[in-house]
Design goal:
286 residues, mainly alpha, two-stranded antiparallel sheet, 10 helices
């Protein structure tokens, strides 16, 4: 009589582990199934429409100073997506990313589903990575949507014969689209940094509103610290301090120093936020 070797627990675990691609796709579908995700995207997409209508009603930016981003909007529809990104980056995009990050962990905990996910045959680091991926995709979609709606609205309402830069030159359509792609990607990285901090906070609480309040309060505090001259030594380390560099995409030639510094700052905050989130997820008991 022969004996059949029983499969080890680790072999059973490997056999039952879902493919990473399936987990990522499932998380993205789950994020975009939430009604508040679509409501948030619609509100973000309405910002360039409202700006364009406001500019048309006011008769154009005649009162703007020469160095202002609004001074080149007249007849220059390619600038509208950048203005919309600047407006959304100040508050709405951080708020929405914090909400999505709060739903990823704290929302699951408040609904009682996080404990079930933690005992599933998936490592906690992998679970956090899947959740972070869903938030990152939603943020990227939001930035691309703002640019697309802003571009279409700008071309229809404002009109354009190329992108008139703040330096007085005119870029071709292809170059203008390239600048908009850079702007969308750069803003997405900045918002990913905010979402990483919000995700770290989300791992420490079961109340999504706490995540929202803490993230927005932090953004406001950073803005206040940036405005105080005596605290100038802190400004290079504040994430929000580099957000004004977004307007550099409207200069010709485009300066990269501010944009690169902003990416470096966002990368540091991204690493810090995800590291704290991983440490907390590994040590939490449910």
């Amino acid at each position: 009589m022969t004996t059949m070797a029983l499969p080890s627990a680790s072999a059973e675990l490997r056999a039952s582990k879902a493919p990473l691609g399936r987990l990522l796709w499932s998380e993205v579908r789950w994020v975009f199934r939430r009604p508040r995700t679509w409501i948030s995207l619609i509100l973000l997409a309405l910002v360039p429409v409202v700006i364009a209508i406001g500019i048309q009603i006011s008769g154009g930016p005649r009162g703007s100073r020469g160095g202002s981003i609004y001074s080149v909007i007249a007849g220059n529809g390619f600038v509208l997506p950048v203005i919309a990104l600047v407006a959304n980056l100040t508050l709405l995009l951080p708020l929405v990313s914090a909400m999505w990050s709060a739903d990823a962990i704290a929302g699951e905990a408040s609904n009682g589903t996080l404990r079930g996910l933690l005992i599933a045959p998936i490592s906690r680091v992998r679970l956090l990575g899947v959740k972070a991926f869903g938030v990152a995709v939603a943020v990227l979609v939001a930035c691309v949507l703002i640019v697309l709606v802003g571009l279409i609205t700008g071309l229809i309402v404002v009109g354009s014969q190329g992108m008139l830069t703040m330096s007085g030159t005119t870029l071709s359509t292809g170059a203008a689209i390239g600048r908009l792609a850079i702007a969308a990607g750069w803003v997405a990285v900045q918002v990913w940094a905010v979402a990483a901090i919000a995700l770290a906070i989300s791992t420490w609480t079961e109340h999504p509103l706490v995540v929202l309040a803490a993230t927005i309060a932090g953004a406001i505090v950073f803005g206040v610290l940036s405005a105080i001259p005596s605290l100038a030594f802190l400004q290079p380390y504040l994430l929000t301090n580099s957000w004004t560099a977004l307007t550099d995409v409207l200069r010709d030639p485009m300066p990269f120093d501010g944009l690169i510094h902003g990416l470096e700052e966002a990368g540091c905050y991204l690493v810090i936020g995800l590291s704290v989130a991983v440490a907390r997820m590994v040590s939490r008991d449910g």
